[in-house]
Specification:
By secondary structure, the protein is mainly α. The protein folds into 2 domains: 65 residues, no CATH class; 39 residues, no CATH class. It is 62% helix and 7% strand. The chain has a two-stranded antiparallel ribbon. Strand 1 and strand 2 form a beta hairpin. Helix 1 crosses helix 2 and helix 1 runs antiparallel to helix 3. The protein starts with a helix and ends in a 5-residue tail after the last helix.
Length: 128
């Protein structure tokens, strides 16, 4: 798919060239008297419309060519969740638990600071 994305970018650049100098390219590359296609003349006449069309259509194609359906969540370089592997979107609990597991594998443990606990919990010894 990367090849199609790259080719689309080259086509966009080429079409921009046609928008600004299409008839000149045809006159220089082909024998004298060669008919300039109507679509080339139309692109040169309507430059703004042509540029916007090239931009939006090209980017739409590039986005679709590059779309793999991947949705992956990483923590410190390790996969926490992969939509390609699971074939579904993650639930919030899976993300939180996955990150917690990766942190604990590295020796990090999360404990809430006492000052963030509600007053009623601090009186009972901090809830830890």
């Amino acid at each position: 798919m990367r090849v199609l994305t790259r080719l689309t970018s080259y086509a966009q650049i080429g079409m921009l060239g046609v928008t600004f100098r299409g008839s000149q390219f045809i006159r220089e590359l082909f024998p004298a008297g060669t008919h300039i296609p109507d679509w080339v003349s139309s692109m040169e006449t309507n430059k703004m419309h042509s540029m916007l069309t090239i931009h939006f259509l090209g980017n739409l194609l590039k986005q679709n060519f590059g779309n793999t359906g991947a949705f992956e969540i990483y923590y410190d370089g390790d996969v926490v969740f992969s939509k390609l592997k699971e074939k579904r979107m993650p639930r919030l609990e899976e993300i939180v638990d996955g990150i917690r597991e990766k942190r604990e594998e590295r020796g990090f443990r999360y404990t809430k600071p006492k000052e963030m606990l509600p007053e009623r919990m601090r009186m009972q010894g901090g809830g830890q």
